[in-house]
Amino acid sequence: KVPEEFVVQHPTNGNPPTLFLVLRDLVCGVKRNKFTVTERDQISSFLERAFVRLEAWFQWFNTTQSGKDMSSYYWHGRDNATTRELNPKTLSSGLDDYPRASHPSEEERHLDLRCWMLLGADCMYSISKLLRKEKELGTVWQYE
In whole angstroms, what is the distance from residue 130 CA to residue 134 CA? Predict the structure, then answer.
């Protein structure tokens, strides 16, 4: 049985946005003509329909997972009151036992989440360019 601490999900804690890996591959494939015309049209149609939700998802990460300093991010949900662990787990990051600060706080900066944010910003930029949403380029996809 999975221990309770590993099951609970909190709406303030983000998990790695791995969907951006697939989206990046799809956009790159479209740009490099790796798909048939029909497949390209289906991918573009999907991206057009999903764009508003992808934008909201990216902005959720960009605001809720940001740190105190500009361009800093940290995985929320670490227990700063625990006395059982020297280095409290970062379950939401997917790297539970990755070495982090021993005393969780809003001062933390997690490079792995910053890399995810860069990937997300790059994906959203590429999708908006592919969908010819030029007026949105350069304003929405800047990660803080």
Answer: 9
Distance CA 35, CA 105 (A): 46
pLDDT of residue 131: 93
CA neighbor of 127 nearest in space, from 44, 33, 16: 44
The pTM score is 0.84
First to last CA, the chain: 40
Token duo for residue 23: 């989206």
CA-to-CA dists, residue 44 to 4, 47, 105, 121, 133, angstroms: 41, 5, 41, 18, 13
d(C-alpha 95, C-alpha 53), whole Å: 26
- pLDDT for 12 equals 87
Instruction: Give CA–CA dist 79/85, Å, rounded.
Output: 10
Confidence class for position 138, pLDDT limits 50, 70, 90: low
Query: Residue 2: pLDDT above 60?
Result: yes
